[in-house]
C-alpha cells in the first residue's frame, strides 16, 4: 500500500480534485482520497450517476464522512463525471448509532 500526501488538494477546486484522482490513481482497483470540503463533496457528487442507485447521495457531506463509489473503468483516467455508483455512505454519527 502506497501513501502519497498532496498538499495541493487542501485548497483544490473540484476540477483539480478530479484531475489529481485521474492522474495519480493509475490502475489500482481501490483508491482512498482524503480531502477537504467543498471539493471532496462536490467531486463525489459529480462522480455519481444521477438517479436511483444502491445508495442515495446525501444532502450534506459532513466532516469525516466516507463515500464509496464504484466505477466500471480499467484505470482512473477512465473515471469520468457521472460514471460512478454510490454503494456506501457513512457519517460519524452513523458509527455512533451502531455502537448504541
Would you give an account of this structure?
The protein has 100 residues and is an alpha+beta fold. Helices cover 27% and strands 13% of the residues. The chain has three helices and two strands. Helix 1 (14-24) crosses helix 2 (39-47).
Key phrases:
alpha+beta, 27% helix, single chain, 100 residues, 3 helices, two-stranded antiparallel ribbon
Summed up, the helix count is 3
Described by strand count, sense and barrel closure, the largest sheet is: 2 strands, antiparallel
Please trace the helix and strand order, writing H or E for each element: HHEEH
Structural class: alpha+beta
Radius of gyration: 14 Å
Alpha carbon gap, first and last residue:
33 Å
Low-confidence stretches: none
Helix content percent band: 25-40%
How many beta-strand segments?
2
Q: How confident overall, as mean pLDDT?
A: 88
Which percent band covers the strand fraction? 5-15%
Globular, elongated, flat, extended or rod-shaped: what is the shape? globular
Strands of the widest sheet, in order across it, are 1-2
Short description:
The protein is of the alpha+beta class and 100 residues long. The chain is built from three helices and two strands.
How is the secondary structure organized here?
Elements (H helix, E strand, L loop, with lengths): L13 H11 L14 H9 L18 E6 L12 E7 L1 H7 L2
Antiparallel strand pairs: 1-2
Helix pairs in contact: 1-2
